[in-house]
Design a protein that fits this description.
Blueprint: H1 7-12, H2 25-29, H3 43-51, E1 55-56, E2 62-63, H4 66-88, H5 94-109, E3 113-114, H6 117-122, H7 126-129, E4 140-143, H8 154-170, E5 174-178, E6 195-199, H9 204-219, E7 225-229, H10 251-268, H11 276-292, E8 300-304, H12 309-312, E9 330-335, H13 343-352, E10 356-358, H14 360-365, E11 382-383, E12 390-391, E13 395-402, H15 410-427, H16 435-444, E14 447-451, H17 454-461, H18 463-488, H19 504-509, E15 522-530, H20 535-542, E16 545-548, E17 555-563, H21 576-589, E18 598-601, H22 611-618, E19 624-629, E20 641-643, H23 646-654
Helix pairs in contact: 4-5, 8-9, 8-11, 9-10, 10-11, 15-18, 17-18
Length: 691
């Protein structure tokens, strides 16, 4: 039984076997020339080409097409299952698994459900097949900066939180962290005059180890001063074959080291104890390094105490101008306490849209809020950057996204739930390379089976049917998990469902993101591309507006006009209270983890003055929430969505040329895109997390 295996055995499961699962090529051939219905007037295919269509040597060095991406994903996930069966000596029914794999293929191909962006990008590639880096299949993680049990290695465990975040971010995982490490009262020490020169190898591990060495030199007494030799790090512009993109050279790493040293040296001349702000600063500096390192975008959430005024004001750059360079990297939220006074929180939200709120009491006590408290998650410590997953420290989690409005009957949707859940459950067979993560993930087997397009479903089928499908679907998943877990000889999942904010993945399917209502019937959808992306020239030729990303010098922003049609209600027609009620409804009847929801409030209608009252009511039916003011110009520059008029939409759309992204499927508007490996999205794929 898996539960009885040692940590090392858990870590090595699936690593030695080389058996592979492959769908019959004749089955794949049926899909080669089918019309693909990507969503939102071409946004979906652009997002796919940008983020998930890998360049593959087995395809002659060309970029894969959608039917080949789905094939790669299916082959990868069933190969993981096959190796697991062989490792534990379980019976493998080839015919039955072929049948399930084909049905899963068809439902992904037609956008009835989709793996997370992490799965679309990494599954079945060298990342999992050769490097066995199964952590890359997970969307999100959380780490506490305060050890949960008494240990002699307090400083080591504290430093581990930072190296865990950096390592995870470098493979595209969004990470939440807390500031509880400030309770340890750790002192910053002046390094000795002796110098330790360390040559940094050109690897992910090398970058992470350099961070650990630097932190040790200031947090442990009597340590040599650390200096680094960066000569082994490849120069900027070299392609990164496994993870995509191009190398940045050592510059971002050098800058990270310099900023951390400057921070510690300032503390030596003042307060020598590590405060909550110091923890957030280091985590944010790490995130900026990873972004500038040209690896991928980064997602962080900092969870602080509700009474920590300095933490709550960290995004007030008039007060803390030195944080402008990196403070934007994280969403900042508080551990809200039931019954607290929300007046100061409302004031801060009105100033800069933060903090968000996380009710850890509810996260620990409840699954779905409709069900009695069970405290199955009593070890929970926080959540991921978009707060759709309850997590223990060092825990990672895989999400999967279903689109109920792409189904005409509940029976059809239930079959999709079965296959979507199967995908996510099988991902838990591939355990990560952090030993502490192996322990908690092998025990919890937590996943997040999510829904998107909820606003569209309500418009088509009504709220009553939504609640009915949620209740039936959740009951079905509980029973199915018991069956599937028993057949795999692994524990049942501690929690199974969530509502993620979505973003890129829902674009592929043409679904509104998660529980959110669309901003308007006509809007600009902003998609970010790396400056070195070969898609940029094609987008400009097509007539899309392309401009510099104001937050990232290495990124460009493409503006795509979208029309949603007339049936779905928009934010202009939905109050703040109704959005909160919708989040509460899904927390009650679907999500046993959490509902990720950013509530848009309208100051012109006086909703800004009602936030604290709303929190008083909804604190008992939610686990997390964040707020953003509704403005026509945007609460911050280059928001993912911006409302435009029907006339402006028609004007913008009329200027677009009929050019194709994919010559084999002439449905869209961009051609002549050169071959490039995609830049994948990270964590929960959500631009809606207010980053």
């Amino acid at each position: 039984m898996l539960q009885q295996l040692t940590r090392r055995q858990l870590h090595t499961i699936n690593l030695s076997q080389r058996e592979v699962f492959r769908l019959d090529p004749s089955f794949i051939a049926q899909y080669q020339n089918q019309r693909i219905r990507f969503g939102f007037n071409g946004v979906g295919e652009l997002a796919y080409k940008r983020s998930y269509a890998r360049v593959r040597e087995d395809l002659g060095g060309r970029q894969e097409q959608w039917h080949e991406t789905v094939e790669r994903v299916i082959n990868g996930i069933f190969t993981m299952s096959l190796r697991h069966h062989n490792t534990l000596g379980l019976k493998w029914d080839q015919g039955e698994n072929d049948k399930i794999a084909r049905e899963m293929y068809q439902r992904i191909y037609t956008f009835k459900f989709l793996p997370p962006g992490r799965g679309l990008w990494a599954m079945g590639t060298a990342i999992t097949e050769d490097k066995h880096l199964y952590a890359a299949l997970n969307n999100c993680a959380f780490v506490s900066t305060k050890p949960s049990i008494q240990t002699e290695n307090v400083i080591e465990k504290f430093i581990q939180a930072f190296t865990f975040l950096m390592d995870s971010a470098m493979i595209g995982i969004g990470v939440g962290f807390d500031t509880k490490g400030s309770d340890l009262k750790l002192k910053v020490h002046k390094p000795l005059t002796s110098v330790q020169v360390t040559k940094i190898p050109d690897t992910r591990e090398g970058w992470v180890d350099s961070l650990a060495l630097l932190l040790h030199s200031y947090l442990k007494p009597s340590q040599a001063k650390v200096t680094f030799d960066y000569t082994q790090i490849r120069p900027a512009g070299i392609p990164l074959k496994t993870f995509g993109g191009q190398s940045s050279g050592p510059g971002p790493l050098i800058k990270m080291h310099e900023l951390i040293v400057e921070m510690f040296e300032r503390k030596l001349s003042g307060s020598e104890l590590v405060r909550a702000r110091d923890i957030v600063d280091i985590m944010n500096i790490i995130g900026k390094c990873v972004i500038a390192g040209n690896i991928r975008r980064v997602a962080e959430i900092a969870l602080g105490e509700p009474y920590d005024k300095e933490f709550i004001r960290l995004k007030d750059y008039d007060r803390y101008p030195d944080r402008v360079d990196y403070g934007w990297v994280s969403n900042n939220s508080i551990y809200a306490e039931l019954g607290m006074d929300y007046s100061d929180i409302q004031e801060s939200i009105l100033k800069n849209g933060e903090p968000g709120l996380c009710w850890l009491e509810n996260m620990k006590a409840f699954g779905r809020m409709a069900d009695p408290a069970n405290y199955l998650d009593h070890k929970a410590a926080g959540g991921n950057p978009c707060l759709e997953q309850t997590l223990e420290s060092m825990e990672m989690c895989c999400l999967v996204e279903t689109f109920p409005n792409n189904h005409s009957t509940y029976q059809d949707y239930q079959e999709t739930l079965k296959l979507a859940f199967t995908y996510a459950k099988l991902v838990t067979l591939g355990l990560p390379h952090w030993e502490d993560s192996v322990e908690v993930m092998a025990r919890n087997r937590r996943i997040g089976c999510s829904m998107s397009g909820i606003a569209q479903f309500i418009a088509d089928k009504g709220i009553h049917n939504l609640v009915d499908w949620c209740n039936k679907g959740y009951d079905f998943l509980n029973k199915y998990d018991a069956h599937l877990s028993k057949s795999l000889h692994i524990p049942e999942s501690i929690k199974k469902t969530s509502i993620k904010p979505s973003g890129t993945v829902s674009l592929l399917a043409g679904a509104t993101p998660g529980v959110h209502f669309p901003h308007s019937r006509h809007y600009i959808r902003r998609v970010r591309l790396g400056k070195n992306s070969n898609l940029v020239e094609s987008m400009i030729k097509t007539g899309y507006k392309v401009e510099q990303d104001v937050m990232d010098s290495g990124t460009l922003v493409v503006e795509i006009p979208v029309s949603l049609g007339d049936k779905v209600r928009t934010l202009s027609e939905v109050t703040m209270w109704e959005q909160l009620q919708m989040a509460s409804l899904m927390q009650k009847y679907w999500a046993d983890n959490q509902v990720s929801c950013t509530v848009t409030f309208d100051p012109e209608k006086g909703e800004d003055k009602e936030i604290k009252n709303a929190l008083n009511y909804f604190q008992y039916s939610l686990k997390g929430i964040s707020f953003l003011p509704r403005t026509k110009t945007g609460a911050y520059p280059q928001m993912p969505y911006e409302e435009i008029t029907k006339e402006e939409y028609q004007q913008r759309f009329s200027k677009l040329k009929d050019i194709e992204l994919n010559p084999d499927h002439p449905v869209l508007r961009v051609k002549d895109a050169q071959i490039e490996d995609p830049t994948p999205e990270n964590y929960c794929d959500g631009d809606t997390c207010k980053l």
